[in-house]
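User: Please predict structures.

Assistant: First:
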Amino acid sequence: MKKRTICCLMSALLAAGLLAGCGSSGSSGTTASTSAAASGETAASASTDAASTDAATESAGAQATGVVKEGVEYTSETDVNDDGTVNNPESVKVDANNLVFWSLFTGGDGEWFGKIVDQYNQEKNPDHPVSVITLVWADYYTKLQTAVATGNGPDLGVSHVSKLYELAKTGAIEPLDDYLNAAGIKLSDYYEQASVDAVTIDGKIYAIPLDTHAEVMYYNLDLLKQAGISEDDVKNISSADDFKALLQKCKDSLPEDVSPLALNSSGDDPFRIWYANYFQKGGADFVNEDATEDTMDADKAKESMEWLKGLYDDGLILPGIDDESALFQSGKAAFLFAGTWVTGTFENTDGLNFNNACYPNLFGTNQCWADSHTLIMPVNSDRTDEESQSCVNFMFSASNDYGITWAGSGQIPAAINANQSDEYKSMKGYNVVEELNNAKYAPRATNYYGGMKAEMIEALDSYWQGTADIDTALESLQGAIDNNLD
């Protein structure tokens, strides 16, 4: 391994709010904002211990030069943000013997992943310890792909399943099959087939599944009791009419400042609800197998748009919500659709009596919006085969041996031995473990993660917010797909 100049992020970093989330979302403390960021796809929850978080921030911001962790050294050129993320990872020196991991996990997710890396380095005593770098989330994929293109890629990284196809097709990451075979690892022995399929592209395995993070349902038990709704009523939802009847009961029974359902009127979360309902209705994938043709079912897309807009128009979602998770966290919403990554934040919120459940069967199936964090091996010509084998050994161990550690972040661990363990069954996360099988992942198109999805959200937002009628918004929605075909 040649000399590396990259930065390691100390594990106790903070994010003031959920960035998503998994991505895209995170939390801080027990009263801080828990909104999903516009990207909505990485779970980045912050520490629930405000004191230790502030201390970590102060330390990270003040540490301009010098050794920050064994084998890692900031230089005078290192540009470190207040939250400890690094803008120029190439400026930081890492021991030549170490494997360099570029991470997008910040806040609480960063802490949990830091625990996994520390446990691996200490307990496995590997020939090549792992050093973690954390980049600014919004810059992560651009910097990763640029570094690979210029021959400066890291040894290890993270990818959402929704981005994995693009990284594989553009040659940014290595297939893992030879290294898995050398280690005697057959992924289907350790993961659900849906998780294995999600990381298999053109018959080759390009990543190790780490988790599934899905849009699920949360409900406030105290508010439901006030509205005369039992938990059995919630668990027995089997249609859109059932769910809407419960929301109407909340509207009729609860104070006017309590939203029956907390949901933003723009961005990722309403998109995820529309997405889940579209596929529950039997909607076709947005593109054909090679992503050269728009195959969206316009009628089902329109029906799903109309149903959600009806909730806004009927006052079942209060107007002006810009942070749905924070509203629920404050006890001012009866129901919430949000990512699995906010679970831990809610559990650490004093006085919040809640439970969670899988996204409900509203239109005949249990499909839900979901994404997945996966561990990848970017192309790096400096890395030897022996080092590449060590990379794959770490990736598998992080997911399989330490999956239960990762469960603390609120994600659903992908490894069966973690998600079926007694320890996980005692966590609220286990209430939604079936989302591993209900997950409807993004279509495989090289332009989906950025252009297509962003333009689809923009089109839908225009309808939710009343700046376009449904036919105009639907035309824009189809245009977002047509404009981003392969």
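Second:
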Amino acid sequence: MLLLAMLIIPGITACGTKNSQEKEGQQGKEAEEKPEESGGSESTEEKTKESGGSESAEEKPKESGGSESAEEKPKESGGSESTEEKTKESGGSESTEEKTKESGGNEPAAESSEETEIQVFLAASLNRVIEELAKEYQQTHPEVSIACNADSSGTLVTQIEEGYECDIFFSAAQKQMDQLEEDGLLVEGTRNDVVNNQVVVVAGKGSGTAVKGLENLGDAQSIALAGGSVPAGRYTRLALMNLGILEQTEDPSSITTVQVQKALGGVEISEQDNVSKVLLAVAEGSCEVGTVYYSDTYGYEEELEILQTVSSDLTGAVIYPIAQVANPEADEAQSAAARDFISFILSDKAKEIFEKYYFDTSVM
């Protein structure tokens, strides 16, 4: 009989019944007690006659193939009526299995538990703040999973254009977002400017560097510098152009690291493919100085010293735009989740979190 009770329980669990642990205990007890009362010799028909039409929890599954008994139904709904009373009210014509079919069973509960995943491509300098923003968002949207791909904005644009699945692009510069918009890869009306940042020249704490800022950057023994396709690298090149250190060109991102090295008197330059790697190269002491964003210094106050906050007159506005990417593989639930997450990114709650990580939210 214990084996029979064990066979009944999985059938109930598969239907998505609530409070399954409580029912398992009740069913197990019923499965052990009812045979003692009946002596195990009476048929289901005889039991029905004696009890006035109600069937035991043990017998009902035999007839219905594992569906819940009429006796269990009131427990599930929290009602107080007995099986016999419910049978009289309903005319005694509908079985528990039929009722389940009419009400659609527990399918809505199964649907609500389905998870939707959205793909967010974001500039490396946004990685830490997005982690906190995603956790905050999921407190009220636990059904949405957020997968992040953090790298330089230039690398991310290349991946999107090559067909990588992406729902949201959060760039560290307007240039890369402009490129996707020109190529028709953005969902119309979803592009928004979110935060502003500033380029800073940093060195390790206590390094004793002679560098004061971009003006005498060539006095360093070694420099960590992002490549030209990386927004931080482009902003640095533009600032050096505006200071007269680099020659004027229409596209600062086209200036190679070798050209920068030559303009700075041959100083050793370690080119990095995103700004987070520049940060680590300086924080770990691999390079004497480097250029990163002010927001990157969050959490590194003990390791880094800010030598100069570069004026936006030299770099131009360092604006971070966000937009939904046209994703042909996304279903409606995924697209809706992407739109909703962007709305959250633009909210007052998100603004507080951005400011905590040293971002300027005045452009929102």
